[in-house]
Amino acid sequence: MNGLWQVLLLALLPGLGNFLGGLAAEYGPSSPRLLNLALHAASGIVIAIVAVELMPEAVAALDGWWIAAGFAAGAMAYLLIDSWVESRQEQGGGVGVSGMWMIYIAVAVDLASDGLMLGSGSALSLSLGLTLALGQVLADLPEGYAVIANFRAKGVPRARRLWLSASFILFSVGAAALAFLLLRNAPDMAKMLALTFVAGLLTVAAIEEMLTEAHEAEEDSQGSVVAFAGGFVLFTLVSAGIETMIGAG
């Protein structure tokens, strides 16, 4: 049970990161350029999570075709979720209250995938779970910024905006608990397949969702490239620092 409580605490972090990003949009400066840079940085972080933490774990334990299958399944899951959200937006006109709830659903699904990743990673080791949690905090800050900006544009009252932003924490915690309980006693192969599934989902989300939204907010500049590379470098340094501290301990 101690392990479960540790996972739940880790799963709070992505939701809190999203909420803090929302507070930054609510009370701090905002502009399309800042949103473009923030989303590029978040994309770099997500790609680093996949390249530095998730895929090396899988490559060390699974045959190539299992990795390909797991990654493809994650990518397909993202496409199915995205198609469902788009169809709901079209039915509701994509504006007003309906549009707001479609944004909410999309972000809730994303936070649930964060929780799935944390639960799967923590089932392998809590040190991996900690590294992934810190990386997701960094990546979810700009997402929280973007969602509050969207809610403001749709005229959602401030109190409701803040409550909706805070409620995203429930999705990351719930998904993490479910994944951990299902996988903690599962064979290592199942845990690794779960990681490759999440890797596929995150990779497609970073490219198709974060970068697309960044391009829609503002035209790319050299600063956008620097932000993307900086996000990758930042997470890599965080990961290396955690491994060093754990090794020294």
TrEMBL record:
Transmembrane segments: 34-52, 64-81, 93-111, 123-142, 162-183, 190-207, 227-248
Key words, A-Z: Membrane, Transmembrane, Transmembrane helix
Signal peptide range in chain numbering: none
Protein name: Peptidoglycan-binding protein
